[in-house]
Amino acid sequence: SAVYRALLDAILQKARSKAYNHAARYLRKLDELATSIKDWCGLPDHAAYMDQLKQVHGRKSAFWSKYNAQG
Predict the structure, then answer these.
(1) What is the pLDDT of residue 17?
(2) To the nearest whole number, what is the mean pLDDT of the chain?
(3) Is the dihedral of CA 54, 58, 63, 68 positive or negative?
(4) What is the distance between the alpha carbons of residues 49 and 27, in angstroms, rounded to a whole number?
(5) Residues 6 or more apart from 50 whose CB is under 8 A from it?
């Protein structure tokens, strides 16, 4: 989970719109992994991470539309 978060964060922080397809795929993978993680080892849980993503990157509509497309 930490690796996917790092990849996703890097893409969104640099606003690399050409990589938003990858970022959306990473976030969907994180959604999937979150259901099986019991101990987050000090990391924010998935719900808290999603809240933080929406606060910081909520205006990146191109990314969110790719994520919501579930493609």
Answers:
(1) 93
(2) 95
(3) positive
(4) 10
(5) none
CA distance 51 to 22: 20
pLDDT exceeds cutoff 60 at 47: yes
63 phi and psi angles, rounded to 5 deg: -65, -50
Q: How far apart are CA 35 and CA 22, in angstroms?
A: 21
Could you tell me which residues come within 8 angstroms of residue 65 by beta carbon, excluding any fewer than 6 positions away? none
Residue 35 amino acid letter:
T
Average pLDDT on 12-36 reads 96
**Paired tokens of 45:** 């849980």
Token pair 């999937």 is found at 32
